[in-house]
């Protein structure tokens, strides 16, 4: 989730940073374009990739696919002008497949982020195609908005809405002395929003989309620290019908990959759930749990809520994918934590307080919540039972919410 001190992606390495082989796959009436799953293959026109790689291979592009999407098409000269010829002063950062610049569109005056993909890498070309297709079809408040793209000659650029607060990683690691660290409440808010983005990809998109690169550097922050998932170049369409997984070459970031995916190449939405909870090295010693809290918090966090967040992370990183909770249950759990405001001025410091109240659901007593965190985090506990408790907790929360909405609706109709 990137809210604890051990979630540092600044030193992570990409797994297999070379072109991923792709074969045609049949999808059953997907809402997300099935052309994504078969890049680069069948019914295509050729685009020369002017690169310095040893083999001068050609990248294949689905015929007329780019012309059919809704994103705006930019001429390369437009983006040169927007970024002042990619001036160093407009440079925002560098990702695995290219550099990102801040720009201002001359026609509208809109401030944007322009990602220029590395022309020396074939993988960057494939990432470009996947990202354009994915973000043109998938829209959600917790996914970054793609404004348009440029495919002039061998130039490949993506134009996004500008996210003024940078990435979550920028606010967690290597902070300058004058920069204040994110407080507990904001971290929980960001974690909840990121989980909602994953929930949309897993449960709302048809077929489901597996993000495959969930980490703090890929969570961008808008005004008010509103989180949005970015970088969809490694995204993959999930299994459909009676299929339990999709098989693919292992890609992503070292340390965030689910074990079954890293070992077998079998990918499911539970692979993203694993990445959401990564904090494994610290779970081997219960005495170190409190150290999972970022030292920059300076002890200003509710111990009970911290342990509950750790229990969620613990369930996410189960060795067996089937025992990890679905993303919808994670949204319920993290949203609850995000809604429990913690005031460090009204509680003891040093992490000894519990946030000023019982850990409950919509006013219920604690027996409706998962088992005590210390027991959940015990490495000898029956993990499947812990997951079942979390699911029951989520169902209880949703049922209470439905009952509350029903009473409110009935009350309004009576008074009306």
TrEMBL record:
<feature type="compositionally biased region" description="Basic and acidic residues">
    <location>
        <begin position="11"/>
        <end position="23"/>
    </location>
</feature>
<dbReference type="InterPro" id="IPR011009">
    <property type="entry name" value="Kinase-like_dom_sf"/>
</dbReference>
<keyword id="KW-0449">Lipoprotein</keyword>
<keyword id="KW-0472">Membrane</keyword>
<feature type="compositionally biased region" description="Basic and acidic residues">
    <location>
        <begin position="345"/>
        <end position="388"/>
    </location>
</feature>
<dbReference type="InterPro" id="IPR017441">
    <property type="entry name" value="Protein_kinase_ATP_BS"/>
</dbReference>
<feature type="region of interest" description="Disordered">
    <location>
        <begin position="1"/>
        <end position="51"/>
    </location>
</feature>
<keyword id="KW-0547">Nucleotide-binding</keyword>
<keyword id="KW-0418">Kinase</keyword>
<keyword id="KW-0808">Transferase</keyword>
<keyword id="KW-1003">Cell membrane</keyword>
<dbReference type="Pfam" id="PF07714">
    <property type="entry name" value="PK_Tyr_Ser-Thr"/>
</dbReference>
<dbReference type="InterPro" id="IPR001245">
    <property type="entry name" value="Ser-Thr/Tyr_kinase_cat_dom"/>
</dbReference>
<keyword id="KW-0723">Serine/threonine-protein kinase</keyword>
<feature type="domain" description="Protein kinase">
    <location>
        <begin position="86"/>
        <end position="337"/>
    </location>
</feature>
<dbReference type="InterPro" id="IPR008271">
    <property type="entry name" value="Ser/Thr_kinase_AS"/>
</dbReference>
<comment type="similarity">
    <text>Belongs to the protein kinase superfamily.</text>
</comment>
<keyword id="KW-0067">ATP-binding</keyword>
<protein>
    <recommendedName>
        <fullName>Protein kinase domain-containing protein</fullName>
    </recommendedName>
</protein>
<feature type="compositionally biased region" description="Polar residues">
    <location>
        <begin position="24"/>
        <end position="38"/>
    </location>
</feature>
<dbReference type="InterPro" id="IPR000719">
    <property type="entry name" value="Prot_kinase_dom"/>
</dbReference>
<feature type="binding site">
    <location>
        <position position="115"/>
    </location>
    <ligand>
        <name>ATP</name>
    </ligand>
</feature>
<feature type="region of interest" description="Disordered">
    <location>
        <begin position="341"/>
        <end position="416"/>
    </location>
</feature>
